[in-house]
């Protein structure tokens, strides 16, 4: 008799495959046309799925966009692992990730505002259909890098890594919003500024020794 223990795993794979298919189809439309001009009905038509199926997986167009961008992020972060591993300091490791982020963002500025709006307004309210794997969330990358910096003594341990990661993520989102709203700004320059601000604020303090 065939075991049914792997049934949830099969269902999860099918769900992921369907979401990837829909998001991939939508991404092609966003890139070939424009994000604003693409409707949910057009996505359903091009993906060859019923509108009800589409809305069961993604309640809004912004949710489709966010899923695609998160998948892009996950792929890019995976390809960065060897480069990050060669970096010797916390600053160089986080700069490596930010440089890659700036490169992607500069190629997709038209998508970013809708993505940021969706993430900021939907914080803490996403349903299961919008849940992301932890490895695709850049906030988790900040947490991992900060925890590493704490282990090497570069970052203070006064606050837990997850709290510091949340604060840095807010700086990151703020830099993106400022760049999107201010013509002529360098995104890499904005990222350098928030990195400097964060490191100077969170750096481990060296204990002073007596002068005698």
From TrEMBL:
Keywords: DNA-binding, Repressor, Transcription, Transcription regulation. Gene3D superfamilies: Tetracycline Repressor, domain 2. The keyword Repressor applies. Residues 16-76 form the HTH tetR-type domain. PROSITE patterns: HTH_TETR_1 (PS01081), HTH_TETR_2 (PS50977). GO terms for molecular function: DNA-binding transcription factor activity; transcription cis-regulatory region binding. Residues 39-58 bind DNA. Pfam families: TetR_N. Transmembrane segments: none annotated. InterPro entries: DNA-bd_HTH_TetR-type_CS, Homeodomain-like_sf, HTH-type_TetR-like_transc_reg, HTH_TetR, Tet_transcr_reg_TetR-rel_C_sf. This is TetR family transcriptional regulator. It comes from Advenella kashmirensis W13003.
